[in-house]
From TrEMBL:
The lineage of its organism: Bacteria, Pseudomonadati, Pseudomonadota, Alphaproteobacteria, Sphingomonadales. HAMAP family: UPF0102. Belongs to the UPF0102 family. Signal peptide: none annotated. It comes from the Bacteria. InterPro entries: Restrct_endonuc-II-like, tRNA_endonuc-like_dom_sf, UPF0102_YraN-like. This is UPF0102 protein ACFFJC_02475. It comes from Novosphingobium soli.
Amino acid sequence: MSRQRQRAERRGRRGEALAALYLWLTGWRIVGRRVKTRKGELDLVARRGRTLCFAEVKWRASPGDLDLAVDGRRLRRVADAAALVASRYARPGDDIRIDVILMTPRRWPRRIVNAWQPGA
């Protein structure tokens, strides 16, 4: 792995750790981290009450770069991965959603709640 890729990996892991802390501080319980599936990896799985959330975390050096961090293709990958493991985490009657947490240094996280709508 190249040095540049190693640095990006460290930044990504740090962003995920900070996003997990943010979720915890806002009342969520982290039930999964870096969950691997054949369709891809889920950054965080969190629960609050009857809501199960699969969170995609994006860390960028500047706020402007965050606007292009997530697109339909990436969200589709997260949705496909979440579908594969939802039965592992979901309880009957749960609301299941996919959120995106956008992180950049020295700023509060920006959260896109329910970022993926099936059929969108």
